[in-house]
Write a structure and sequence with these properties.
Strand content: 25-35%
Helix content: 10-25%
CATH superfamily of the largest domain: Neutral Protease Domain 2
Oligomer: single chain
Distance between the termini: 47 Å
Radius of gyration: 26 Å
CATH class of the largest domain: Mainly Alpha
Structural class: alpha+beta
CATH topology of the largest domain: Neutral Protease, domain 2
Strand order of the largest sheet: 5-4-8-2-1-11-14-13
Number of domains: 3
Bound molecules: zinc ion
Number of strands: 31
Largest sheet: 8 strands, mixed
C-alpha cells in the first residue's frame, strides 16, 4: 500500500525500541484453502445483519482444534462438515473443536455463522458524498475483524463473496463478477477470486458508486468505482492505469487476476492494493494546487505514482506475497521501484532521478532515527514496518541490483523470481537465488550488507594528483557507524585531455587506489549515474 506522506512525520516520533524477536503466526497445523463468504448488510450499511463463512481447511498435522483469528463480533454457531460443534470465541481467537482428531491431508469445511458491527477491517462509513458505504481495509492483519480467518500473509487462499445489500448500491469484490440476483429490495452480488490471495487483500466495496468502464482495456477488464462527485474526473485521473498494466505485463508477466477495479473509498492508506480491487483514498482526486504535474498524463504526479505503485503490487505483494513480515520489502520496495520504472518510461530520466533521489533522502532520514536492517525481525508493531527501509531503501536495493547486473540480466531475474513464486510466497533468499541463477554471480554478500545489515555508505573521497608518477591517488574512507560496504564505486575523472572512467573496489572502511592520469584532473566525480545509495563528499588534497 502507499502511506500518506504525512505518515512519514508521524513515524519519526514512533519508538522502535524493541526487544527480542517478533512473533508471527506461521502455517503449521492447518491452512485455509478456500473462503466462501456470505454477508448481508443492513439498510444503512451500518452493520452485518447476518454472515456465514464456509472455510475449506487442509489439515497439516494431527489436531483436535482449529484456531481461527476472529474479532469481537458475535459468533452464532459453528459446524464442521455440516455437524454442529462446540467453540470458544475470546480475545481475537475462535477455537473450533473438531468432532474427532483429524489426520494430515484431511480436508474439512468449517462453517461459521456470525453477525454484528466489526470493530475494524470492514469500514462502515459515509463516502465522499455522504452516502453509506462499506469497504474492506485490512492491512496488515485486520481482516479477522469481519472474516474468521488465518490472518497472516502466508496463509493465501481463494475466496468467493456473496454480498447482499439494499438494491440502490453497487458491490465490488475480489475476482470475477459471477452474477447478481434481486429479492425484497436487496441484491445479492457474487464474485469469485480463483487465484489464492493473502488475507489482507480480501475485500468488498459496497455503496452508491458510479461505475465507469475504462476506455482502454487491453490487458484485463479495467473499471473505476467512485463516488458520483469524482465521476467526471475518473477517466482522466485514472488514465495511467492502462499504460501501467501494459508495461508491467510486458516486463514481468501477464496480469495475474481476472479483472482490475480501481475504487475510491474508505482506506486509511493513500492506496491499498487488494488483489484485483484496489482502493484509493477518498482524497485521491482532491485539488493539489502546488503539486508537480505529470507532463504525460496532465494529472498531479502523486496520482500517477500511487496508481503505478498499487498496480505493481498486483504482481509483487499480491501474487508473490512476502512469506514473513520481515520480507515486507519484497512487496513495498518492489511497488516503490516499479512505480519509478513507470515514471522513467513515461516521464523521463530526470523525473526518475529526482524520484530516486527523494527516495534515498527518505531512507537517510529514517536511518538517522532508526538504524535497523530492512529485513527486520524485531519491530513489534506491524504498522511501524511502513517505513523508509521497506519502501524507499528497498527500491534502492533493486536499483543497485539493476545497475550492477545490467537491464537484461536484472529483468530476467525479476521474471524468473516472479514465475517461480507467483500465486505463492517468497522470501529474500528466494529473490537472491533468482538473481544468482540468471547472473551466475554470487550475491550473498550484497544481500548480507544491504538487506540483512543496516546503514548506507558515507564516503569521504580525497584525491591527489602525483605529477612525477602521473598518477591520481584516490582515498576512499567510509565514515558511517556501521560496517564497511564493499560495493564497487564508479569514478569519472575529467582532465584537459578527456575523461577517464574507473571503478574503486573498496576492501575496507579505508581504501586507497591509484589511477594512471597524465594530466591533473579538473574534476573527480563519484558515481555520477547514481547507481549506489550513498552520501559522498569529494575533496582535492
Ligand atoms: Zn505499497
Amino acid at each position: 500500500m502507499k502511506r500518506f506522506s504525512v505518515t512519514i512525520g508521524v513515524l519519526l516520533f514512533c519508538s522502535f525500541t524493541t526487544f527480542g524477536v517478533r512473533r508471527e503466526r506461521l502455517i503449521d497445523a492447518w491452512r485455509p484453502v478456500h473462503y466462501n463468504i456470505s454477508i448481508t448488510l443492513d439498510d444503512k450499511l451500518s452493520e452485518i445483519t447476518s454472515a456465514r463463512a464456509d472455510i475449506e481447511v487442509l489439515v497439516l498435522k494431527r489436531l483436535s482444534v482449529i484456531d481461527f483469528d476472529f474479532g469481537d463480533i458475535t459468533t452464532d454457531s459453528v459446524s464442521v462438515n455440516g455437524k454442529n460443534v462446540s467453540f470458544t470465541h475470546r480475545n481475537g481467537k475462535l477455537d473450533v473443536t473438531l468432532p474427532e482428531d483429524q489426520s494430515p491431508g484431511t480436508r474439512l469445511t468449517v462453517s461459521i455463522a456470525y453477525h454484528g458491527k466489526p470493530r475494524d477491517g470492514l469500514i462502515l462509513k459515509a463516502d465522499k458524498d455522504g452516502k453509506p458505504s462499506a469497504v474492506g481495509d485490512n492491512w496488515p492483519d485486520r481482516v479477522h475483524h469481519w472474516i474468521p480467518s488465518f490472518d497472516h500473509p502466508s496463509a493465501k487462499a481463494t475466496v468467493t463473496f456473496h454480498i447482499t445489500a439494499p438494491d440502490n448500491n453497487l458491490v465490488i469484490a475480489n475476482g470475477r463478477f459471477e452474477n447478481v440476483t434481486t429479492a425484497n429490495s436487496t441484491k445479492t452480488w457474487t464474485y469469485n477470486e480463483s487465484v489464492a490471495i493473502p488475507p489482507y487483500c480480501m475485500i468488498i466495496g459496497v455503496g452508491d458508486f458510479a461505475k465507469i468502464d475504462a476506455p482502454l482495456r487491453r490487458q484485463t477488464p479495467l473499471s473505476y468505482w467512485v463516488s458520483h462527485s469524482d465521476s467526471s474526473y475518473a477517466i482522466k485521473g485514472f488514465a495511467p492505469a492502462s499504460s501501467v498494466l501494459q508495461m508491467f505485463s510486458e516486463i514481468v508477466a501477464p496480469y495475474p487476476y481476472e479483472k482490475l477495479a480501481l475504487i475510491i473509498g474508505a482506506t486509511q492508506f493513500g492506496g491499498m492494493e487488494n488483489s484485483s480491487a484496489i482502493v484509493f483514498s477518498q482524497t485521491l482526486f482532491n485539488a493539489r494546487p502546488n503539486a508537480r504535474v505529470s507532463a504525460t498524463f496532465d494529472i498531479p504526479a502523486g496520482i500517477e505514482s500511487v496508481i503505478a505503485h498499487e498496480i505493481a503490487h498486483q504482481w509483487f505483494g499480491d501474487s508473490v506475497t512476502e512469506s514473513t513480515w520481515a520480507d515486507l520489502w519484497l512487496s513495498e520496495g518492489f511497488a516503490t521501484y516499479f512505480a519509478a520504472l513507470f515514471i522513467q518510461k513515461y516521464d523521463g530520466q530526470q523525473v526518475f532521478d529526482a524520484y530516486m533521489k527523494d527516495a534515498g533522502e527518505a531512507a537517510f532520514k529514517f536511518e538517522k532515527k532508526t538504524l535497523i536492517p530492512i529485513h527486520d525481525h524485531e519491530t513489534d508493531k506491524l504498522f511501524d514496518l511502513l517505513n523508509a527501509n521497506n519502501y524507499q531503501k528497498g527500491a534502492w536495493v533493486l536499483h543497485m541490483l539493476r545497475s550492477r547486473l545490467g537491464d537484461d540480466v536484472f529483468f530476467r531475474g525479476i521474471k524468473t523470481y516472479y514465475e517461480k513464486h507467483k500465486e505463492g510466497t517468497a522470501s529474500t533468499e528466494d529473490l537472491r537465488e533468482a538473481f544468482e541463477a540468471v547472473s551466475g554471480k554470487p550475491l550473498r554478500s550484497f544481500f548480507a550488507r544491504w538487506v540483512y545489515g543496516s546503514g548506507h555508505p558515507q564516503y569521504q573521497i580525497n584525491w591527489q594528483w602525483l605529477p612525477k608518477q602521473k598518477k591520481l591517488k584516490i582515498s576512499a574512507n567510509q565514515t558511517q557507524s556501521t560496517d564497511a560496504f564493499l560495493d564497487p564505486v564508479p569514478i569519472v575523472i575529467t582532465t584537459s585531455n578527456g575523461t577517464i572512467t574507473t571503478t574503486l573496489n573498496p576492501s575496507n572502511r579505508t581504501y586507497v587506489q591509484y589511477v594512471r592520469s597524465a594530466q591533473k584532473p579538473t574534476q573527480v566525480e563519484v558515481d555520477p549515474d547514481h547507481t549506489l545509495l550513498k552520501e559522498v563528499t569529494v575533496r582535492m588534497n
